[in-house]
Design brief:
Structural class: alpha/beta
Order of helices and strands: HEEEEHHEEHEHEHEH
Largest sheet: 5 strands, mixed, barrel
Bound molecules: hypoxanthine
CATH architecture: 3-Layer(aba) Sandwich
Number of domains: 1
Number of helices: 7
Length: 276
């Protein structure tokens, strides 16, 4: 019989517990180009994914594939930051994609921040803007919870009314206002990728209620919800989605925008997490 996800997460968690030797207060997943936030942490411990038993390896450029654990300056909070995540388009099953989240669950982490790079579907959005995720639409059309049910992971039919914590959203809006950072509120739509969308698809996504489009986050948010975590989601709009403006979209541009706003992004994230 194959090893269950629950047991695999326990194995990864056991290893991490030995390495980290303290409780993780908040877990953070960093999207494309946003890796710099991890550099802010103090008393850092860096664990490459390949050292963690049962973790897959990150294959995407700009996702370095390591867990950085440290203290957030000015707080007593221990933060575990995923610099690089696993995507469905890399060929992993959604069980592999979400195993790190299951591992955080096994480590009893209850507070989660998911970030990503996304295309702006809402025509009012500009490249470089930040969007607070109020809700999502799963146009990947597959759930990470599909398959044999294991009660130890959570409910078979988990509620999705408030995937992105209302309280955390309030913290985010207050923090952005204090810093003078513009923060949109919108719906994130996930597609499988890895190709970007066509202009016709982007028009369809807008009709369906998307403000931003990307290739990650939703499976992680669903798993986190099932495990009873509170989640904050923030998208960096790295580009106007296809057809919204002239010109083509490329990964280098997506990465570059992440680096350009990383200072501001890190400031905002630090302020929000300090309130969580
Ligand atoms: N579409 C999908 N995913 C993305 C985009 C986009 O335009 N930009 C960054 N990630």
């Amino acid at each position: 019989m194959s090893v269950s996800i629950f047991e695999r997460a326990q194995t990864s968690a056991r290893y991490l517990r030995e390495q980290i030797k303290r409780e993780i207060d908040v877990a953070v997943v960093l999207g494309s180009g946003l890796g710099a936030f991890a550099e802010k942490l103090e008393e850092k411990l860096i664990i490459p994914y390949e050292q963690i038993p049962d973790f897959a390896r990150s294959t995407v450029e700009g996702h370095s594939g390591r867990l950085v654990v440290g203290t957030l300056p000015g707080t007593a909070l221990t933060i575990a930051v995923m610099q690089g995540r696993f995507h469905y388009y890399e060929g992993y099953s959604l069980e592999e994609v979400t195993l790190p989240l299951r591992t955080f669950g096994a480590l009893n982490v209850k507070r989660l921040v998911l970030t990503n790079a996304a295309g702006g579907v809402n025509t009012a959005y500009r490249a470089g803007d930040l969007m607070l995720i109020t809700d999502h639409i799963n146009l990947m059309m597959i759930s990470p919870l599909r398959g044999q049910h294991d009660d130890r992971l959570g409910a078979r039919f988990p509620d999705m009314t408030e995937v992105y914590s209302r309280a955390y959203r309030q913290f985010a809006l207050e923090s952005a206002a204090e810093l003078g950072i513009k923060l949109h509120e919108g719906v994130y739509m996930s597609l499988q990728g890895p190709n970007y969308e066509t202009p016709a698809e982007v028009r369809m996504l807008r009709l369906l209620g998307a403000d931003a489009v990307g290739m990650s986050t939703v499976p992680e948010a669903i798993v986190a919800r099932q495990m009873g975590m509170q989640t904050l989601g923030i998208s960096l709009i790295t580009n106007a989605a296809a057809g919204v403006e002239e010109g083509e979209i490329n990964h280098a541009e997506v990465m570059e925008m992440g680096q350009r706003v990383s200072g501001q992004f890190g400031q905002l994230l630090s302020k929000i997490i300090a309130r969580m």
